[in-house]
């Protein structure tokens, strides 16, 4: 191993153990599936309490007036963002004009910063309204902004139901927070 970057990637390669020929996939977000819901009170909304988590532990990248932007804990791709109103509302047609306007603005800003920070080539953007439409958390509205790159899909998700993630949530969170902060300063 030569020329490894500083930080989590270098740390992952320096974990003690017998060397072998295997390449390691660093996918720490998968532990969330195993421990999903632990420590949460029954009926507690993950989006309503997202901002109550200490800043160095939460995945919020930007706080607006009526909405905020948070990284998806179970991302389809690195940088998968969710734009959420602060108010606990389930459906898009239940939002106020101010909330729907800010959802639009924050979605556009998310695209800009994901291009800047992650070099995204394209995006999947959408809302799943209700369980039958695919909403994993149907009780609190959230807009998905999923960055895409050429060749970002391969056989892993199809054959092995595995997604290789090249960046940790903490790293992308910090880069996006910085991009939003720098745009506010300009």
What attributes does this structure have?
186 residues, alpha+beta, HIT family, subunit A, 5 strands, globular
Description:
- It is a single chain.
- The chain starts with 7 loop residues before the first helix and ends with a helix.
- It has 186 residues and is of the alpha+beta class.
- Helix 3 (97-118) crosses helix 5.
- The protein has a five-stranded antiparallel β-sheet.
- It is built from five helices and five strands.
- It has a single domain (30-185), classed as HIT-like (HIT family, subunit A), CATH 3.30.428.10.
- It has helices spanning 8-13, 31-34, 97-118, 155-160, 169-185, and strands at 60-63, 67-71, 81-85, 122-126, 143-148.
- Helix content is 30%, strand content 13%.
- The radius of gyration is 18 Å and the shape is globular.
Summarize the structure.
With 186 residues, this protein is α+β, with helices and mostly antiparallel strands. It has a single domain, classed as 2-Layer Sandwich (HIT family, subunit A), CATH 3.30.428.
């Amino acid at each position: 191993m030569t020329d490894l970057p500083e930080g989590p990637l270098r740390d992952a390669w320096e974990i003690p153990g017998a060397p072998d020929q295997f390449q390691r996939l660093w996918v720490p977000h998968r532990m969330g599936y195993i421990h999903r819901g632990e420590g949460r009170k029954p009926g507690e909304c993950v989006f309503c309490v997202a901002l109550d988590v200490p800043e160095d532990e939460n995945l919020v990248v930007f706080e607006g007036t009526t909405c905020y932007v948070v990284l998806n804990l179970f991302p389809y791709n690195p940088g998968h963002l969710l734009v959420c109103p602060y108010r606990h509302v389930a459906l898009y047609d239940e939002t106020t004009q101010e909330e729907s306007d800010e959802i639009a603005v924050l979605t556009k800003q998310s695209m800009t910063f994901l291009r800047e920070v992650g070099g995204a080539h394209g995006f999947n953007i959408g809302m799943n309204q209700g369980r039958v439409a695919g909403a994993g958390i149907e009780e609190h509205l959230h807009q998905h902004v999923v960055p895409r790159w050429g060749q970002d899909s391969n056989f892993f998700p199809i054959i092995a139901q595995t997604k290789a993630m090249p960046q940790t949530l903490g790293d992308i969170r910090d880069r996006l927070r910085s991009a939003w902060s720098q745009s506010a300063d300009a």
